[in-house]
Task: structure prediction
Amino acid sequence: MGQPNPIQEPPIDPLADTNPSLTIRQVQLDSRSEATGGWRRGAGFVSLLGAAVLTAAAALLILLPMPAPSPAPTEAPQTVATNTTPPTEVVIVPTAIIDPANPGVLPTLPPDAAAVLLGQPVAAAVDNDPLAIERDNYTPFTIVKQERPRGEVINYTAVQGDTIYTVAQRFQIKPESIAWSNTRRIVLVLRPGDVLNIPPVDGVYVQVVGSKTIAEWAAQYQVQDPYVVIDSEYNSIGGSTPETILPSGTWIFIPGGLGEDITWNPGVTVEQGTGARQGFVTSFAPGDPGSCGNVDNPGGGAAWANPLPGGTYVRGFSSFHPGIDLSAPPGTPIRAANSGAVIFAGWNSWGYGNTVVLAHGPFLTLYGHMSSIAVRCGQLVPAGSVIGGVGNTGNSSGPHLHFEIRNGQTQSDPLATIPNLGL
Result:
């Protein structure tokens, strides 16, 4: 008979699921099971032995004293390798180290290392090492760009509002240099669209005409050494001699040359009066210290008189000298050439010095370089009355009267109106 089964199967319910409620595997105990148990006991012994060794090692680490902490790194060492041939030296660029405590912060170069590197200009890499840079001992410097002076005569086109003075100021030369380098008509009036020769420095830019030598052209403009013209960087006449006659039509620049005296032309307005203002409304050089502004001008008389009886005629009227010069001792009385209204009395900044201007209907008379003024703005003066004294003020080379007659803006030869002036 077989051995009794100690586990009792519960009774089967015919109405329940037909699957068994519990499945049991019976364990077989035979000789193979005994062998397997011995191997497992050996593996367990080895595991216990390893655990004991690890425990002993941990205890040893705990009982040993802790080593002192190493200092935190501050910067990489800087090594300078010098060449045997002075003064060149080789600088190894220091490498900045990231602080482990602040890994998100970018490293910075120490100030002393930066000063060493910035103090020497970079020359070239040494031995193909990108970090070893050869530097010389020259002091770093900065080149500042400066304006270079012009090396030639240029052309400038005048625009509305330009005067010889404003153009000269723009190009930093004297207004006389512009006048001497162009047609003298611009001295009388400068119109928008006029093309001007602008010399690079003060002097005279002239077109050669006739058979004068270079020496003669230089002497005409008060330059004694003709080689100043020949050797000038502004001319292309190298190889010439003082006796050279340049082809007619050649333009040359005479550095430092001086032309004739220039008497400048201030602004003038002459308008017919309207309404209660009968006659004319006239102004001369508005904005100048001696200008009287707009002045009512009833008109002048029919007779003209010599403004400087006893004066000596020294210079006549021309396209670049819009009047005549009469010399006389300083203080000699100057008289009104016709009856009229004073529209200017005082200092004139256009070269006339102390000046009086009278309006005679559409005509004006100008008296320049005076030593004294005896009239005031708006005053009506009769012909022959004293208006001031002879002087040497303004652009003048000696005591004399500069006398002009104008019809509005246009100058005319005073000798055509008063034939006996200075004669």
In short: The radius of gyration is 54 Å.
